[in-house]
Amino acid sequence: MRRPALDATFAVGYLAVALALFLARANPASAYESSVYAGTPTVVWLGFAFGLAIAVGTALTCRGRDQALSIGLGGLVVTSIVSLPIIRNYRFSGMGDAMTHLGWTRDLVDGELAPHELFYPAVHSFGGVFHFLGGVPVERALLFTMVVLFVPFLIFVPLVVRNISGNALAVGLAAIVSWMVLPINNIATHMGIHTNSNALFLVPVVIFAFVAYLRRRATVERLPLGISPFSLLVYLTGFALLLVHPQQMVNVVILFGAIGVVQFLAQYRLEDHPILEHPTTYVQTVVLGTIFTVWAATNDRFRSAVVGLVEGLLAEDIGAAAEVDEREASLTEIGGSLGELFVTMFVDAAVIAVVVGLFILVTWLGWTTMSREAASFVTYFGLALVPLTVLFALYFVGTPTMAFRQVGFIFVLVTILAGLALAHLFGGLARYLTVPGANTIASLTLGVLLVLGLMTLFISPVMYDPGQHVTDEKMSGYQSTLHHGVEDQPITALGYDPFRYDHAINGLEGEESLTGGTAASGEVDHEAFEDGNYSGAYFDMDYYLVVTAYDVNREIDVYQELYYSEAGLAGVERDPAADKVISNGEVDVYAVRADD
């Protein structure tokens, strides 16, 4: 493509994205949205799609400055999608851990908590900084923190691949795969204020520092005590990752340790190989492992997590099998299936994983044209997947949530390797077709996978779960209930324990902060509720029942009255034991009296 035409193409692409952002901002969410995809105007998605189509095509065909512009365009589109809760003026997003993190941040801002008192204080500290510097509410500051921590993933994945191979096609393909955001699986990793997931997006930064340490010999630029500046960069990025979430720090230590084992074995098995010329990772593994151990050993949350894992391994019917069976039964009752859900949520990740797995195999068999230097990194990452997968298996048996968080880290490595794998796949295809023909097939294939990946970036009813948009009305309804309700009267909800709202509104440092597993808050008994026994639906106690637009959408529209029916909800209105004490259009709160 000639220079004027290429410049015009980029200009049109960036302009389309800018107009899409303007229209998204001009159409804020005016009520609860069960799907950010459906709630955002169609014309916004058309602008994003147009910009992304240009980015995919030019990332494959352009080189140098032009490829950087194409990667920047694609990254801008994906970052814009991630930023939609901010752009469209959501009060907040996330109803589980995100609420607790909001409470901790509120405690930091109010001076009730010091950063060092948290096990992983980075996200909360960033939120506090943005709150004070920007003069924005804490909720918005945290959403902004989510976006800031996401951007390094899009930047450093292609940079890592560039540092490993220098193949421009591999760099472009790595960028495209990074736009799929494969580490997010919406089972245990989420696009939101979720520190474990937020930490995943910083892992490529640590890996970039590691690759720089191995590839760039610092024989002259030495720091005091002979420390390599690139080694120091590994320590600094690793410690930053620890402050965001320690589980991903553990995975980095395992990664470095596995690579150290490969280097150790290479000294005895190989005579002439690039691995023998790389500086060893023994010291980095020990130092990062020691930092983690010192940081974690004195923390109660870490000890509780270890105890929970051990108990899960030893207990019967606690692991993933029981949880999968339960969810499969529920899906079947509402007309879905695990197979359908798998295709919706994981088909893009599965395709990329298969390609990467085959690429690792053919690389070890010596069937690729890759340089020995680049192939050594495939060996490093490929063998490191073995202990990482073993840890996944242990989590899967003991604590399934941790297992799917582990999958998130594995897919960070898969994303990096995918750039190299796809470059060899489509580069080989070009020998049988033509370069334009191979690029066309690559663009169409990756375009489809991109759509599948981005349509499951946020939770939505397509995954049989409504979005976790938190509106002003919802926060106001819970705040009024918590602050003006009868003291010690429990607060309940439909299908979940609402104690997290107390965290978000009042923080966690108060003496009467609600916690899960107590009678002070909880879920009403759905069988008693459906039988019309509202007075006896919560331990025969007087209680407040909070019904939100989210609850109605989930129970009636998404779950198709599996647990709570429309008739059951309507019955509360007529029951003489239930008085509606709050109603603001999105939240109804009932004071329900127990039977005398």
TrEMBL record:
Source superkingdom: Archaea
Membrane-traversing stretches: 42-61, 68-87, 141-161, 168-185, 197-214, 226-244, 250-268, 280-298, 341-365, 377-397, 409-429, 441-464
Signal peptide (UniProt feature, chain positions): none
Protein keywords: Membrane, Transmembrane, Transmembrane helix
Record protein name field: Uncharacterized protein
Native source species: Natrarchaeobaculum sulfurireducens
Source taxonomy: Archaea, Methanobacteriati, Methanobacteriota, Stenosarchaea group, Halobacteria
